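User: I'm writing a tutorial on reading structure tokens. Could you give me a worked example: one chain, its sequence, then its tokens, then a sentence or two explaining what the tokens reveal?
Assistant: Sure. Here is the example chain.
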Amino acid sequence: MKNDKFAEPEAPPMGFATAPPQQGYPQPGYPQPGYSQPGYNQAGYPQPGQPWGPPPPQPGFSGYPPPPQHGYPPQYYGAPPSYGAPPPQVPPHPPMQTTTVVVNGGWYSRNQKNKPQSNAVGAAGLIFVSGGMNIAWCVGFHGPLWYRTSNHNYLAWFIGGIIGALLSCLMTNKVAKKHVLIFSSMLVMIGGIVIASTRNNGSAQLAGSYLDGIANGLVFAPFMALAGEVSVSYIRGLVAASIEQLCFGLGIFLQIVYVTSWNTSGIYNYNSFSAENMKGVLSAIYGLLALIIGSLLCIESPVIMLAKNNDEQGAIDALRRLQRPYILTNETFEQLAEHKRYLAQNKELSKCQSIAQALPTFLRLVFLRGLNAMSISSFVRISLMYTIQSQYIAGSVSWIIGFGVCRWMGNFVATFCMESAGRKKTTVLGLLACSVFACVVAGQYNIYNRASGNASMLLTFQLMAGLAFTATSPYLAEAYPLGVKQHFVAFTFIAEMLVFIVLGLISWNPLAGADYFWVMGGLYLFGFFFTILFLPETRRTTLREAQDKFSRFFSPHF
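And here are its predicted structure tokens:
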């Protein structure tokens, strides 16, 4: 008897139209697998009286799905592999994308990462190289001069430096530092061209010295402050020392070397291309390179951007360009936060409080910079000349060139010790050694006999002097409160120029040369104890922490 359930076809199960019946669940009207149901034939067994073979198809029901058509992939039925898994959680507001850059702790990797910071102030270093050449010229390292000179010629560069420093005080944070650098580079270039294009002209030399001095004074305070503000704490000393003391020392070295070589080669007659012209050519080249590099690579201070206009976006962009790769990193925002803390600390100080805090630091640094001027004065040069008797004696050229080499090597060694040995250790060691060697020179000073031993002491004295005063560069970049920083950096530079002027106005007595070295030995010994007690160690500290250390009167810790 036929079941009424098969009178019309059953609707296919839910899913695809060709899907077979779902397995594992009882379906109404269908036989259950594995069980014998009455009225249904069992698979593989025919009904009684039915021939062997496949059963006839039931009306309205097909026991097999249609075969897949050619050209289509096989159909898969059932739930996807991830069926039943919870959907991935999507954050409602994705956070700002930052990058954490992991850099190898080696010196080369750190230098490459922070190279834009030294590039931002590197053009000022070229101007300081030209300034070092003029300092060496003013203290007496020049060739034969075929024109009338006076003290004014030898003091013009220092006077120009004072004028430029005073002008920089008036332009503090009013004119962009890049514009100051471009203008100063043009002054150096023009002054060099004036000296290079004239022959045996005292007025041209005087004008060139003034232009170069004004340029150096204009650049000194803004870019020493900028070096401290764009550098990270662990290379600030290296950057500040390399653009100031190292570059001034390099200029002194170059002037001594080429002038001494020029004189001994016999090219010093009236009509020849003189050492003066060569000095002008080199100054013009330095000015041109400073103009190009400063226009392309100079970056303004993110601290000043935050202080003047509260330009946080501009400060972030400046910090991004001060490190490689040029992307926003976690360190970028950490530096921004530190700059904000530095500004907040200085905003709490009134103008009078800032000046009161800066004055003790000013006295400490002026004392050290004055000793630096004494170490490279005309008295020291004349003592060297008397010691080797005459620059025309065979072998004297080596002593003079060695003088410049030792001075620059002291700067070089100390510059690359700023972040390892620190500022205070190199200063203390250099001052003590300078005191000892100055006293030795004074004790065996003799202008009548050639004393190669004294010449060796003078060269070693220069080496130790370079070691002693290189740390004053990072101290200038980080010591003063922000509100009066550029003004007091400029005043420190002016005080150093005044020491050069005073020493240039004093008449030299060869017989009293020993007295000068006795005085220097005593001052350097006093400076040794003074530095131990009153000068702080600021290696790898933030600007805020360095300012706190300088605000204390006693700083005996290394």
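What the tokens reveal: Residues 112-300+349-550 form a domain with the Growth Hormone; Chain: A; fold (CATH 1.20.1250.20). The mean pLDDT is 83.
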